[in-house]
Design goal:
alpha/beta; two-stranded antiparallel ribbon; 10 strands; globular
């Protein structure tokens, strides 16, 4: 299973209709992703608004994703928390639902030390026998898990198999690849750095942009894996403006609005996130039209 987490993996949005999880649209979105050649799916990540899902909703979203995927691609379920006991509970939910692995964000707000980060992940790894990919995104969490801690965790716990590296710092990404075991998986958590990180030893990307263009993101990763760097570079540059558009406001507000413009979901997000400004909606429409994603 470790090799299965590679290429373009979509950090799925969670569609809501009238504030309620829209299972029908979610299942349709999953089928669209798989038909386009995506390499894997992440339910209940940051893009899936996990922070505003109840535990019951969290479990339902993962269960529905696993059921709809039906083993066609790997499912890496979001299961992180800033409460270690809760992270263990959510990881158990992911395992019981049949997910192929769990994605665990660094504890946010608490601002743990590097030793605290080690003990947090060690506790989850000891409690749940499931492949774990750690998620380092200092811009959202307020703490940065440094390469020596990742290397220590990877060496001490065989089920800790990779990291979603979302610092945007290629120097740190290089240090992670250098210090961790050779089979440790480094996935970009930042669409902008997906290709550069793969060029220095990463194996793929957990992508926001692939919610709206899974075929192209998968094609970029496929081109790189097959040795066609020129094609991968061309796709990287082709997608760059779309990546920028996905972050004109806080993720997942723009990508959900884009999917709504494309007729795939309703655009609703849960507070404290809110609808995009009128100007940003106009700007987003222009980008989507330029990519022929809407008329």
């Amino acid at each position: 299973m470790q090799k299965a987490f590679h290429g373009a993996i979509t950090a799925l949005v969670t569609p809501f209709t009238n504030g309620i999880f829209d299972e029908k649209r979610y299942r349709a979105l999953i089928d669209t992703q798989i038909a386009a050649g995506i390499h894997g799916l992440v339910p209940c990540g940051s893009t899936g608004e996990s922070a505003t899902l109840t535990h019951a909703e969290h479990e339902e979203v993962i269960r529905v994703c696993v059921d709809q995927v039906n083993k066609r691609v790997p499912v890496l379920a979001g299961a992180g928390s800033n409460n270690t006991t809760e992270a263990i509970a959510l990881t158990k939910i992911a395992k019981d639902a049949g997910a192929d692995g769990a994605l665990l964000i660094t504890p946010y707000y608490n601002k743990p030390t590097q030793e605290g980060l080690y003990q947090h992940y060690a506790s989850v790894a000891k409690a749940v026998d499931l492949p774990l990919i750690l998620y380092n995104v200092p811009g959202r969490t307020g703490c940065n898990m440094l390469p020596p801690v990742l290397a220590r965790l990877a060496k001490d716990f065989p089920t800790i198999i990779g990291v979603k590296e979302a610092t945007g710092n290629l120097a740190q990404g290089s240090e992670v690849i250098e210090q961790c075991p050779k089979d440790f998986l480094v996935l970009s958590g930042d669409d902008f750095t997906a290709l550069p990180l793969m060029c220095i030893g990463g194996v793929g990307v957990i992508s926001v942009t692939s919610n709206i263009c899974p075929k192209e993101m998968a094609a970029m990763c496929n081109a790189f894996e097959s040795g066609d760097l020129a094609k991968a570079v061309a796709l990287h540059h082709k997608l760059f403006a779309l990546h920028k558009a996905m972050f004109i406001e806080t993720n997942p507000v723009p990508v959900k609005k884009a999917l709504a413009f494309m007729g795939q979901i309703e655009s609703g997000v849960r507070l404290p996130l809110c609808e995009m400004t009128e100007q940003h909606c106009h700007d987003l429409r222009a980008v989507l039209k330029n990519y022929d994603l809407i008329a």
